[in-house]
Amino acid sequence: MIAALWVMVGISLLLGAVLGFSAIKFKVEGNPLVEKIDAVLPQTQCGQCGYPGCKPYAEAIAKGEANINKCPPGGEEGIRKLADLLGVEYVPFGEGAAPKAKAVAFIDEQTCIGCTLCLQACPVDAIVGAAKQMHTIIASECTGCELCIAPCPVDCISMQPIGEDITNWKWDYPTIPIVQVAAR
Amino acid sequence: MRPLFKFHGGVHPATHKAESTRTPIALAPIPTKLVIPLHQHVGNRAVPVVQVGERVLKGQIIGRPEGRLSSAVHASTSGTVSAIDMQLVAHHSGLPDLCVTLIPDGKDEWIAHSGVDYRQTEHTDLRHLLRQAGVVGLGGAVFPSDMKSYSHKHKIKTLVLNGAECEPYITCDDMLMRERAGDILRGAEVLRELLYAEEVLIGIEDNKPEAIAAMQKAVLDDKHAHMEVIAVPTLYPGGGAKQLIRVLTGIEVAAGVRSTEMGVQCFNVATAYCVWRAITFGEPLLSRIVTVTGNVEHAQNYEVLLGTPVDELVALAGSRADTNKHIMGGPMMGVDLPSGSVGVTKATNCIIEASPKLFPPPPPALPCIRCTRCADVCPAELQPQELFWFSKAKDFGKAQEYHLFDCIECGACAYVCPSQIPLVQYYRFAKSEIWQRERDAQAADLARERHEYRLMRIEREKQEKAERLAQKEKAALAAKAASPAPAVNPEPAHTSSAADPDDTLQMRIDAAVARAKAQAATAQPKNVNALTPQQQAEIAEIEARRAKIREMASHAGADDEPPKSNQG
């Protein structure tokens, strides 16, 4: 009886030591779920979700603090992907949070006074310029977050929608047109 | 007799080739205007190098190649550039692209040009000549030929010349082989030289006996060694590069593998012809053979200047009144042209005039009955019915798992589908959606990286600033400790002021003022050397006047308020 007890205690101590060791040795840094959520988000860093960037929003979703329908740039497909990832129900966008057409910022260089305020606002450093030098947008890096528009004191930044051209044109989903046929 | 191999599947659509092979190739007259797109090849769009209003000569470069994968675009005849703008082009999207519009002057005046002997020219120079001559694959893929004529990575054993021309209606390669076999084979020799290939196999479908005979005769006449003309069975899509290589050599080019890795390179016969013209005569690619057929009075092949509007071309063949659209290419893989105003490009092998009688509108698609006839005919050995379901359900991950990107969009599956489902449309939709997603994912990765770098930079700047401040504070404390000895003080001016020595800000201001004063004291006017006595006299006079004014001012100022500062 006593011997059996000692054996059990011995085993539990050994296994406990192994578990304790592996908990330290194979510790996962950060929350892997946050990385996965962040990979789904469109990285516009626009703050429309109410968090200062995509990563903080991903962290909030992972903690269960934020709903998954707060990211208009991700579109409905983004919500579906998040719902799939997290195993929750699809939630439609709330009031006034509809996705917009993609656009890039454009600086009217005639009006720009070179105040650098937009440079400081841009989350992806997509604006080139210096004090009293007019600024310009690197269109290929611009995420269309619109964060540069509010700080501009002379309102010289506008959003220009990205038009469809031969390089980004997509095939339509095949549909069968419904034709009205006269009743016999 | 060489043993031939088979590729999987294939269909036998009605060929309709006899209509346009009755008469020899005719030279199309110079049209009233040429609309020359700058993006006629795979790769980067050529950059326009001419101005509106400029006179250009035949063969002059109007678009220079941009980047590694690109090709030059030339003026097809002499004339004046009337516009460089967005115009409709031959593309599935029906969207405009950058084109140069040329009004020909009718003189057809060549720019100075000359060829080289390919045997005595460096291969690098030959490839450069091909690039500058705008030679691209004329079978329809328009891949720059200079990029294909390399063999340094993989040893090329076999050069395959593709004269199969499997699509119905198209006969441009057939007629070219009948009439210009000698030059095609000479071009093949140039390509063989560039690739160090041992043998040349010319695959021609056996429904073109005249072309086969002409090519065989040319091989014998010019005594080409290790070159063989082989009749291959007529089976659509036997003209696909992978399919033809399979039939001729038995080599199956796996998914995601280039044929060059298996020691085979494939060129179209018309490309070989253009290579010969470009290298030996210095003639860039300015015209090509185009079959005009379908709903026309007399179907025929024309040698057409690139940029010729399709309307003017089909008028030559007598397009009938009930034509409702123009198809560029064949009926299986062709592009419906958005308008008759688009210019002929390097990819235009055929213009089919379509009428509702000739191509009745397809009946509405019925549900898939899973008969898998599409899988039986698929030359890429895919499961078209699975690809259809996944594309329809927008399950793009699954579609890719089923090798969507190995689909060559030949249309054989849709041709046999008993439910008339536009299968290729679904595959194209899925492919373009996947490309779009990849572009978006790349943009997101870039944005994430830049954002994270920005956060890191802001953090670093903050730290650096804090460190700088801490150091200054330290220096100030040290200065305070060593107070009465200004010689060892890093901020030597603080003793001169009556301010509180504890206030480091005030200390710094005082230091700056002192520095400025010291600088002003040491500064010497630099424009008073080597003056004439007359100028010196003038300066002395002015200085005297200034001194007088200053004196007066200080007297006057002393009466009402103390002088603010020194005017010097």
TrEMBL record, chain A:
Keywords, comma-separated and alphabetical: 4Fe-4S, Cell inner membrane, Cell membrane, Electron transport, Iron, Iron-sulfur, Membrane, Metal-binding, Repeat, Translocase, Transport
Which PROSITE patterns is this protein grouped with?
4FE4S, 4FE4S_FER_1, 4FE4S_FER_2
MF term (GO), any: 4 iron, 4 sulfur cluster binding
Q: Name one GO cellular component term.
A: plasma membrane
| Signal peptide limits | none
**InterPro entries with a match to the protein in the record:** 4Fe-4S_dom, 4Fe4S_Fe-S-bd, 4Fe4S_Fe_S_CS, Elect_transpt_cplx_RnfB/RsxB, RnfB/RsxB_Proteobac, RnfB_subfamily
- What residues does the 4Fe-4S domain cover? 29-88
- A GO BP entry: electron transport chain
Q: Which ranges carry the 4Fe-4S ferredoxin-type domain? A: 103-132, 133-162
**Which HAMAP family does the entry link to?**
RsxB_RnfB (MF_00463)
Protein name in UniProt: Electron transport complex subunit RsxB
From what organism does this protein derive? Answer: mine drainage metagenome
Quick one: which gene encodes this?
rsxB_8
From TrEMBL, chain B:
Q: Does the keyword rRNA-binding apply?
A: no
- Enumerate the spans annotated as 4Fe-4S ferredoxin-type domain: 398-427
Give the record's keywords alphabetically: 4Fe-4S, Electron transport, Iron, Iron-sulfur, Metal-binding, Repeat, Transport
An annotated GO cellular component: membrane
Q: Low complexity compositional bias: what residue ranges?
A: 476-486
Concerning Pfam families, the annotation shows:
Complex1_51K, Fer4_7, RnfC_N, SLBB
Q: Which NCBIfam families does the record cross-reference, listed alphabetically? A: PRK05035.1 (NF003454), rnfC (TIGR01945)
Protein name, UniProt field: Electron transport complex subunit RsxC
Protein source organism: mine drainage metagenome
